[in-house]
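User: What would this chain look like folded?
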Amino acid sequence: MYVAIIEFPSIPAPRDADFRAWFDWSNQTLADAEGLRDRQLLRGDDGCYLRVVEHDTAITFAAMHASPAGTKVRERLQTVLSDAPHARTYGLVSQPFSRRGDCCTPEDGSTTAVGRDRAGDSGHHGCCGGT
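Assistant: Here's the prediction, encoded as structure tokens.
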């Protein structure tokens, strides 16, 4: 997995709705990008925004940015922001802990819980919900 964390410059209150609309539009525009796993917008307590983008690889991430859709997304963002965002990228070095997915689905496809939950807490049933 390859992750990019993008810090956006401060968004003036009158531009906030435009920025959020851009983000929703950009998600739709890039939805079919090969290797794109997830794209999320976060807002800090200070009001600043971060975007977290998950891709299969650095190659699929670069290809998305070089695509016509990626170019269109960046061009439209320039009409909303006065300064450019700052990005940092990261490659996965260990398997992430996640309650998402099929941790409770045994190989036979049944929905019976298998093993302990991932947190290892016998009093908490994790993603299995105690089934």
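Confidence is low (pLDDT under 50) at residues 104-131. If you want, I can go into more detail on any region.
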